[in-house]
Amino acid sequence: MRTTFAGVSVRAAVVGTATAVALGLTGTTPAQAAYPSSYSVKGIDTSRWNHGSAINWNSVAASGQKFVFHKASQSTGWVDPYFNQDFKASAAAGLMNSGYHFYAEGTGSAQADHFIRTLRTAGYTGKAAGQLPPVIDLEHHNGACPAYATTTHISTFINKIKSSFGVAPIVYTSKWFVDDCLKGNGSVFSTTPLWQPRYQSGSNEPAALPGANRSWSFWQHSETGAVSGISGNVDLNVYRGTLTQLRAMANIGTGTTPAPAPLPSWPVLKYGATGVDVRALQYLLNARGYATTVDSSYGPATQNQVTAFQRANGLAADGITGPATWSKLIVTVQSGATGNAVKAVQTELNSKGYSLTVDGSFGPATLSAVKSFQSSKGLAVDGSVGPATWQTLVGS
Q1: Are the beta carbons of 28 and 13 closer than 8 angstroms?
Q2: Closest of 249, 184, 187 to residue 214, by C-alpha
Q3: Buried (b) or exposed (e) across 87-103, using 16+ Cβ within 10 A?
Q4: Is 286 left (phi over 0), alpha (psi -120 to 50) or beta?
Q5: Straight-line distance from the first to the last Cα atom of the chain, in angstroms, rounded to the nearest whole number
Q6: 95 near 67, Cβ under 8 Å?
Q7: Exposed e or buried b for every residue in 5-35, given b needs 16+ CB within 10 A?
C-alpha cells in the first residue's frame, strides 16, 4: 500500500524478499505454497495515488476484479479525498467494497472514532449488500511503529468497529509489524479476518502471524499490477475462499451460505507424541528426502530428522513441529500424484472416517474423498490438497 498524511508520501513498510534480506529481516520467509494465480477470486485496493486520471470502475469490474478496498482515513483527522466518490462508484459497478484506515497518530479510540465517522459519511453501514467489513491497516509509519500501536489500543479500535457496525474488521498487517511493534504477540487478531502482503514472491504466501492462530483471508501479492480502468500501478489481491463465500461476507446471500470459518491451528508435535498426525509428519519427512521410519511415534529419530529439516530450511532447529515447520513441510498433491505425501493425505483422510488404501497413489477414490472432505469443511472443492486443505486435514 502507499499511504499519505499531511501531504507526505511514504511507501508501506512491507518489503519484498531482496529488500527484506538487505534489512536483515531474517526468519520472515513463508512457506512455498500456492501461487497467487491459483486463487480465483481477485481484487484490488486503491487510494489517492491511483488517481493520475479518473478511475473507470466499470472497466475495473469488467477486467474480472470482484472486490476493492479503498483508503478512507488516517490518524484522527485525515480523509482520502477520493474515498466517497470511489466507494459509491465501485459499488455501482458491481464490485464488493469497503474502506480502510491507516493507523498512525492518535490513540486507538480516537482513530476508530474518526474512521467510523468517515465510513458513515460515505453511506457505509456494514449491513448493505456488497459491503465487506471495514479494514484497519497496521504498518510501520515513517519507518517506525506508530506511538499507539499496542495490543490494548488496537483491541480498543477493533472493539469500537465491532460495536458500530456489528462485524469484526479485517486486519491488514504483516509478521514484521507483529514482531517489531507488538513484540511477536498477534493474539489480538485471533477473531479478525486477515489481509496480508507478500510481494514478488512466486509461490511464497504471507508468513503466519504469531499468536493469531489463523491464516490469511486476503493476500496482497503485488503493488505493481495493471488493471483496466486504472492508470499506473495498482495493488493486486486474491481471496482465499470461493466467490460465494466472499459474497456472504459482503452480505449477499447472507443466511444461505456462511462465510468461511478461520482455518484450524496447526498441531504442535514434539518428542513423545504419538498418533495419526505424527504418522503423517513422518510420511512428509520421507517425501522431503528425510528418511524416517513411519511408526506414528515421535521418537529420537523423528526428532532428529525434524531438526535437520528445520536447519536446512532456515527455521528454528528445535525439533518441534509447529506452524512454521508444517508450512514448509507440506507438499501440494492432486490427482495423478504418487509418493509419501499422498500417503500422508490418505492417512489423515482415514482418520476422518474415509476408508482409503494407503498406497501413495492419488487415484479416483482419493480424489473423491478429498473433494468430500473439502466440501464438508467449506473449502474450495477442487480436489487439490494445497495449504488450506492440508491445514484443515492436520489441524482438525
Answers
A1: no
A2: 187
A3: bebbbebebbbbbbbbb
A4: alpha
A5: 34
A6: yes
A7: beeeebebbbbebeebeeeebeebbbbbbbe
Question: What value, to the nearest 5°, has the Cα angle with vertex 274 and ends 270 and 277?
Answer: 80
d(CA 248, CA 260): 9
pTM of whole model > 0.90?
A: no
Report the relative pairing of strands 194-197 and 78-79 from DSSP bridges: unpaired
Residue pLDDT, tens place only, 292-343: 999 999 999 999 999 999 999 999 999 999 999 999 999 999 999 999 999 9
Q: Does residue 21 surpass a pLDDT of 70? A: no
Give CA–CA dist 302/341, Å, rounded: 16
List pLDDT tens digits, range 211-240.
888 889 999 999 999 999 999 999 999 999
Q: For 181-204, give one letter per residue: b (16+ CB within 10 A) or e.
A: bbeebbebbeebbbbbbbbebeeb
Query: Could you tell me if 196 and 210 are in contact, meaning their C-beta atoms sit under 8 angstroms apart?
Result: no
Q: Which amino acid is at 69?
A: F
Whether residue 210 contacts residue 185, with contact meaning beta carbons closer than 8 Å, is answered with yes
Task: Identify the CA nearest to 95 among candidates 57, 135, 46.
Answer: 57
